[in-house]
Design a protein that fits this description.
single chain; mainly alpha; 0% strand
Amino acid sequence: MSTPVTASSIMPSMTRWLWLVLLSVALLGGCSSLYYNTMEKLGFEKRDILVDRVENARDSQNDAQETFRSSLERFQSVVDTPDTDLKDRYAEISDAYEDSKSSAEDVRDRIDKVEDVAEALFDEWEDELGEYESDSLRRSSEQQLDETRTQYSQLISRMHDAEERMDPVLEAFQDQVLYLKHNLNAQAIGSLENELVGIRQDVDALIRNMEQSIAESEAFIRRFRQ
C-alpha cells in the first residue's frame, strides 16, 4: 500500500529545495551575471537589487559614523585618564583603530556592490532600448534611463566623497597606534593629545560627508520606489 502524499510530507522537500536555491544564489555572488540571472528567475529585478544595495550602503555608513565617533572618544579617553596603565591605553586605541578599519572596509564593500549592480542595470537598459518597436516608448524609456543615470551619478559621487574622507582618519589612527606600540610612555601619550585636534577635524569632516551621502541615498531610494 503506497504512502499518501500529504502537506506535511511535501513541506520538508520544499524547504530543502528553497535552501538549495538560496545557497546557489549565495555561491553565485562571485559571478555577477549568473547571480543576477538567478535572482531574476526568483523574481528580483536588477533595480530591486540596486535599491537594496543602496539601503545596505546607507546603513553601513550610518554604522561607520558611530564607529568613528566612538573611536575618537576612545582615543580621547586615553589622554584624559593619566592613572590608567600604559598597556591598557595602547590596547584601547588599538581596538578603536581595528574597529574603524573594519567599518571602513564594510562601507567600501557595500559601495562596490552598488556599482556592480548599477553597471549591470544600465547595460541591460541600454541594450533593451533597441528592442522597442514604438518610437515614443523608446524615447520615454531612454529619458528615464538618462534621468536615473544622472541621479545615480550624484549618489555614487557622494558615496565616494565620504569613502575618501575615511582615509585620513584611518591613517591618523594607525600612526598613533604604531607610535605608541614602540613608545609606551607618558611623553608618547602627550603627543597623541597634540594630534587629537587634527584628528577630530578629520572625523567631523568625515561625518559631514557621510551625512550628505546618506541623505543622497535616501533621496535615490524614494525616487526609485515611486
